[in-house]
Amino acid sequence: MTHTCHAEGCSKACPPKHLMCGRHWAMVPQSQKNEIWRHYRPGQEVDKRPSTEYLRVMKIAIDLVARAEGQQGSLL
Ligand SMILES: [Zn+2]
Questions:
Q1: Which end of the chain, N or C, is more open, meaning fewer C-beta atoms within 10 Å of its C-beta?
Q2: 7: CB partners within 8 A, 6+ apart
Q3: Tens digit of pLDDT for each residue in 38-58?
Q4: Ligand 1 geometric centre to CA of 69 (Å)
């Protein structure tokens, strides 16, 4: 099974513990990266049970990248 980047429209493969590929991860503001790592639980990518908080900050990061790329994010 291949894990792919969570950024919108991106299907680049990346390690399961990484939310996005290197290019998209670089577009996430540092403060938001900190939030993601704060809520990240080792092993969540194995048991597929990330916390509600992780899913929330993950979605914000995806929206921020989508907006940085000029797409319409769902927060707009
Ligand atoms: Zn990507």
A1: N
A2: 20, 21, 24, 27, 62, 65, 66, 69
A3: 999 999 989 999 999 999 999
A4: 11
